[in-house]
Amino acid sequence: MSTNPRGLFLTVEGVEGVGKTTNIAFIRDWLENAGVELVCTREPGGTPLAEELRELLLAKRAEPVDPSAELLMIFAARAQHLSQVIEPALEQGKWVLCDRFTDATFAYQGGGRKLPVATIEALESLVQRGRQPDRTFYLDLDVEIGLARASKRGATDRFESEERAFFEAVRAAYWERVKADPQRFSVIDASVSLAEVQVNLAAALEALVSQHLKS
Q: Pick the residue with more confidence: 41 or 164?
């Protein structure tokens, strides 16, 4: 496939239990079959240092984690991820598919933890220097259904152990992001069957690839 000088940056977002892992694998396979040179990664994580920070963030601990400390660790991991993985891949014309990015920070730390949006925006500006996803696939699902699905996976991490009200606030914050930038988001109803979800994802991917080739 011919590519633009810079690749596309794609992200996948959603609350617990929406099927991100399964559907990211579907997106990866679909794009690779279409001839896209793709880098798959995740947040927090994506580099050795960022993965170490991920482990610190997700681990359950007796010591309460201050929300600001949590936010700073997330952006520290993101800074490393951007400089070592995302930006170099995009510069080489590769596409990047990332499991979560800054929308998750606004949702989880802004909506869930109630940190000021202005604080997140300041760190976003410092770390990302204008870098935003070109397209975000938001998998949407009722929180109660999502938590029921997630509970079947076994042991939960520090975030998955939060109460339902936390995830309701997260979902509401995601929708605020969608409403503020509807052109960037492809909203996918994750309450339907997996086959239907993937039909809808394939349609969105087909439109994206066609648009990119014409640009």
A: 41
Taking alpha carbons only, the member of 87, 114, 109 closest to residue 98 is: 87
Judge whether residue 2 has pLDDT over 50: no
Q: Over range 149-153, report the average pLDDT.
A: 76
Q: Tokens 């399964």 belong to which residue?
A: 22
Judge if the upstream peptide bond of residue 182 is cis by omega within 30 degrees of 0: no
Beta-bridge mates of residue 42: 99
Beta strands 185-189; 9-13: pairing state: unpaired
Query: Residue 189: helix, strand or coil by DSSP?
Result: strand
Q: What is the pTM of this model?
A: 0.92
> What is the radius of gyration, based on Cα positions, of the chain?
17
Tokens describing residue 7: 């690749």
Q: What are phi and psi of 73, to 5 degrees?
A: -65, -40
DSSP 124: H
> What value does the mean pLDDT of the chain take?
92
Hey, what domains does the chain have and what are their CATH numbers?
Answer: 9-214 (3.40.50.300)
CB 50 within 8 Å of CB 77: yes
Q: 117-150: b or e for each residue (b if 16 or more CB lie within 10 Å)?
A: eeebeebbeebbeeeebbbbbbbbbebeebbeeb
User: Which residues, 6 or more positions from 200, have their beta carbon under 8 angstroms from its beta carbon?
Assistant: 188, 189
Mean pLDDT across 115-124: 98
Whole-angstrom distance, CA of residue 203 vs CA of residue 18: 19
- Identify the sign of the CA torsion 200, 201, 206, 209: positive
